[in-house]
Amino acid sequence: VLARAIRKEVPGCDLVLCGAYTSDSETAQVGPQLAEELKMPSAAYAEHLEISGRTLRVRRLVDNFRETLEMECPALITVSMERYEPRYASFAGLNDAFAETEISVLNAEGLGISAAQMEACGSRTRVRRVFVRDAQKKNVLITGAAANAAAEFLDKYQRKISAVIGKSIESKKQAQT
Predict the structure, then answer these.
(1) Average per-residue pLDDT in the chain?
(2) Cβ-contact 34, 22 below 8 angstroms
(3) Bridge partners for 57 per DSSP
């Protein structure tokens, strides 16, 4: 829906900005999926953006690692809320912005989309639940020669590792017995 609206209202646009997360489920999928639909390169979680001609420099923080990317327009950037607080327009500002502008209303028919495609059944994703995982981490110190330490680790955690990777693993010690 968003890709069709952008193609219709601003064909050939150079830059699309999105929030990093959705307000309903925080899946962070809207921006990347929209970029895919628009066939645009994208960068997620931007905390700083510089534009020089058709070149974008995007600084972002991902997994506590800061990096700077350079890309050409057209592009889609998702913006990190940690760095950019949304500004809310005053009523007077909104009044000035829309005083002499016609507001177009888009609907499914105008975008060539069936009503079913706009309902939940038309969504490509399903959110089963949203939750904050409790920290259940317990640090374990394993000492000794590397081979012995690895074998000790596998002996202790093989069931958990097998459950995570979805297949059975055995340490050398178990294979020998």
Answers:
(1) 79
(2) no
(3) 50, 70
Strand partners, 77: 17, 43
Reduced to 3 states (helix: H, G, I; strand: E, B; else coil), residue 174 is helix
Closest CA to 130 of 20, 19, 23, 18: 23
Other C-beta atoms closer than 10 Å to the C-beta of 59 total: 16
For residue 105, the model assigns a pLDDT of 81
Task: Report yes or no: 79 and 17 within 8 Å, Cβ to Cβ.
Answer: yes
Name every residue whose Cβ is closer than 8 Å to that of residue 54 and which is 6 or more positions away in sequence: 14, 72, 73
Task: Specify whether the CB–CB gap between 64 and 23 falls below 8 A.
Answer: no
Amino acid in the structure at residue 45 = Y
Tell me what pLDDT residue 137 has.
66
Residue 53, CB-side half-sphere exposure with 13 Å CA sphere:
4
| The residue to which tokens 């050398």 are assigned | 172
Does domain 2-122 fall into CATH 3.40.630.30? no
Q: Domain residues of the chain, as ranges?
A: 2-122, 146-176
Is pTM beyond 0.90 here? no
Q: In angstroms, rounded to a whole number, what is the distance separating the alpha carbons of residues 37 and 30?
A: 10
- CB burial of residue 88 (10 Å; 0-12, 13-18, 19+): exposed
